[in-house]
Amino acid sequence: MKSFRALDSKKQNDIRREYKNKCSQEYKYSIHLFILYTILGICSLIGLILIFFAPYTGAIIFITSLIGTGISLYFLSLSNQNFYKFLAKKGYKK
Fold first, then answer.
1. In the chain, what's the furthest Cα-to-Cα distance?
2. What are the distances in angstroms from CA 80 to CA 33, 34, 61?
3. What is the per-residue pLDDT across 27-50, written as a single tens digit (0 to 9) for each?
4. Each residue's pLDDT tens digit, 53-70
5. Is 18 within 8 Å of 10 (Cβ atoms)?
6. Are 37 and 69 in contact (CB under 8 A)?
């Protein structure tokens, strides 16, 4: 089985485009989770900075965002399994 990461970037992008076309719902779900993950990460950093100015509010924002980031990361890793299954069908490993 060939490694996906060993392929050149053009071939990787072609496979990603094919996945996007064939499995658009799963692809959109993963993208939305990644956007949520990024936003929650930024909120965590903002909460961390706010701890110095408003300790109680900053701590609540930081902890809530950090928990949300962890949960979204868990679901993001689960959503990536669909792509790995697609790769396996194509004869590649991750």
1. 54
2. 11, 11, 28
3. 999 999 999 999 999 999 999 999
4. 999 999 999 999 999 999
5. no
6. yes
Calculate the CA 92 to chain-centre distance. 21
Q: What is the DSSP letter of 55?
A: H
CA 20 vs. chain centroid, Å, equals 15
Tell the residue number behind the tokens 């990603």, with chain if given: 16
What whole-number distance in Å separates Cα of residue 76 and Cα of residue 2?
A: 24
Closest listed residue to residue 29, CA positions, set 74, 79, 70, 86 = 79
The encoded tokens of residue 89 equal 């069908």
Alpha-carbon gap, residue 19 to 27, rounded angstroms: 8
State pTM to two decimals. 0.82
d(CA 84, CA 94): 6
